[in-house]
Specification:
single chain, mainly alpha, about 80% helix, globular
Amino acid sequence: MKNIFDSLKKHKRVIKYAFTLIVLVLMVYYLCKNRDILSLLEKLDFKYVIVIFFVQIVGVFLIAFTNREVISILRKEIPLMEAFMLQYVNSFLNRIISEAGAVYRGVFLKEVYKLPYTKYISTIASLYLINFLSYSVIGLLSLLYIYLHHHRISYIVLVLFFVVLITSIVIIVINPYLKNKKRNKLLTWIISILEGWKDIKREKGKLVILTLLSIGTLILATVQSVLVYKGLGFKIGFMETLYMSSLAAITTFVNITPDNLGLREGVYMFTSDVIGLDSDVILLGSLIIRAISLVNTFLIGGISYLILVPRYRSAKGGR
């Protein structure tokens, strides 16, 4: 068994890309089988595409502001515009190679701002606690709204939200000390979160700001979904879309394909009964948002990369 796990670890990147290819093939097959749904693209109001494009820019700005606040906790200051470009570069590289963006961002901050890589990673990872707590509460409230108004519910998702909520609260309150003698990857990730959490929880003011930014980012993702389905001619309530966005956000830590390709779409389609839209419509809307994001990221992210690379090389060469 150990040999099997070692082999999987050794060929991790190959497995990821193979899985990504399989996901792409399945999505293409699904759309071909339901090709009539593609006719909705002719009805797509382009003004919604433009609005979504700019909403995504605001979303990246909020994430950049979040990163800047986290970095300030570590007693380092980074200009907001540079944090904004760095976040775009992070997204740009993640579209190409899974996790490449996070690695580049960490190395950039280490070389330019002398920010310890492991310290930065653990503090950023601790944001998962804030996100999970916020998203699970919002997810439960939105699911309750849907149940009371439309009498639709998913008990599997209900249990998932409760498990995430309770786990987050337990970790935050108890903040357990864990040992990782066997260097288990999941345990390493959890320990990293706990280490970063020690720094964040000392900054009560920052904790409030980070929570509000987390909620704001989720709301912007919800707005994008509302707009894209409205652009396709479908009316979907804000709370229904908020439920869908909360569920998708909680699953983002499962990083098995570049930019979680296929995973988010699968989660959206899984929620179709609760939301009240056909699964093929949900898939099309998600793919449209992803396509807009791709153009957005490659355009602004590519420019940001060209701007930041000389700064990185200058800092590295000046050591």
